[in-house]
Design a protein that fits this description.
three-stranded antiparallel sheet; 3 strands; 112 residues
Amino acid sequence: MSGDDEDRADALFHALADRTRRDIMRRVLAGEHSVSTLAERYDMSFAAVQKHVSVLEKAGLLTKRRSGREQLARGDVAAVRSVASMLTELEQVWRGRIARIDELITSPTMED
């Protein structure tokens, strides 16, 4: 991965590391929600929810648009797929390592 790709991965995983942000993502992937409606669901200030939404937006996981006085948030499915792709890539690396360890364990030793 290039440096830019690594920076993007850092931003994505940082954004998803928080429980509230993951919950917000579940909601906005299911459909567009106003930030004020999202804020009603959490035991925190509107400003705190707005900050969570901002972290998700900066990571590219959601987009916002204005509709009158409201800000509407929508999840970006392609960005979520890129996270899944990164995790699949990591899984393949580890499966390869495990397979090599298995081969070493089951191969006959030189002494046999």
